[in-house]
Amino acid sequence: MLRLEGIGKRFGGLTALQGIGFTVAKGSITGIIGPNGAGKTTLFNIATGIYPPSEGKVLFEETDISQFPPERRAQLGVVRTFQNIELFGKMTVLENVMVGLHTQSSSGLFACSLRMPWQMKEERRIREKAKEWLEFAGITDLADVEAGTLPFGKGRLLEIARAMALEPKLLLMDEPAAGLNSRETAELAELIKRIRDHGVTVALVEHDMDLVMDICDALVVLNLGTMLAEGTPREIQENQAVITAYLGEE
Ligand SMILES: Nc1ncnc2c1ncn2[C@@H]1O[C@H](COP(=O)(O)OP(=O)(O)OP(=O)(O)O)[C@@H](O)[C@H]1O
């Protein structure tokens, strides 16, 4: 689904990544892990189009998207979530998902504000669709709550619902468990598995090892800008180089 080939990234004289190559298999939940400063965020930014790689290629379904900006990737089905949740705080939970759907709709926000009959119908369709995504994320009861007042964990679920409304083929998540307590993390884990079971491939950068080991089908371990290992969670847990890299950090 997503293939990285020989990815390198330099910031001035600093080599942040070198020779990174792996595939995110269709239908998988793939985790990218590694000690602090390993290059995870840099790799995530390259995969999502924040900046291009200094060398190598990002291929999505065999299309070279290395130079595509985030919007163009989203049109192809590569959608991301943010570590710092970016919601419209003054809008309700439901409206936040509706905004995402409007950007896809033929009429758009402006036309809908004119309230022509066919646009009203479109508006109703979008509202229904948005409700379905709230249900999917388990936050239906919060539909009319102002998004800015949500507890952090619910905000994250909303952000994911909004991303899912774009009907991605691949969802890239930047530290989805950051800032969540254990109950919220468990809720998140269930949602991410549901997303995979819904047919959406997931790749995530994450620090929470328990979560990663629980939900991921495959792991990629970065260390000091290079690839240290890849394999199943069990293989990674038993990998001596990985154990040394993590212990060396403490
Ligand atoms: N925009 C930038 N300009 C210069 N150096 C950068 C930039 N972004 C990252 N780096 C450097 O690249 C290296 C990898 O950083 P990166 O943030 O990708 O690691 P990380 O694995 O995400 O770390 P953490 O787990 O602490 O978030 C670090 O040495 C960092 O200082």
Q: In words, what does this structure look like?
A:
This protein is of the alpha/beta class and 250 residues long. It folds into two domains: 166 residues, P-loop containing nucleotide triphosphate hydrolases (Rossmann fold); 62 residues, no CATH class. Helices cover 42% and strands 24% of the residues. The strands form two sheets. The chain has a six-stranded mixed sheet, with helices on both faces. A four-stranded antiparallel sheet has the order 2-1-4-5, with helices on one face. Helix 3 packs parallel to helix 6, helix 5 crosses helix 6 and helix 6 packs parallel to helix 7. The protein starts with a strand and ends with a helix. The model has no long low-confidence stretch (mean pLDDT 91). It binds adenosine-5'-triphosphate. The site of adenosine-5'-triphosphate (ATP) has 11 residues, from strand 2 and helix 1. GO terms for molecular function: ATP binding; ATP hydrolysis activity; L-isoleucine transmembrane transporter activity; L-phenylalanine transmembrane transporter activity; L-valine transmembrane transporter activity.
Helix proportion:
40-55%
Structure ligands: adenosine-5'-triphosphate
Distance between the termini: 35 Å
Task: Give the total of domains.
Answer: 2
Q: Give the strand line-up of the largest sheet.
A: 6-7-8-3-9-10
CATH architecture of the largest domain: 3-Layer(aba) Sandwich
Order of helices and strands: EEEHEEHEHHHHEHEHEEHH
Residue fraction in strands: 15-25%
Number of strands: 10
Rg estimate, integer Å: 19 Å
What top-tier CATH class of the largest domain fits best? Alpha Beta
Average pLDDT taken over every residue: 91
> What class do helices, strands and sheet pairing give?
alpha/beta
Report the total helices: 10
Shape verdict: globular
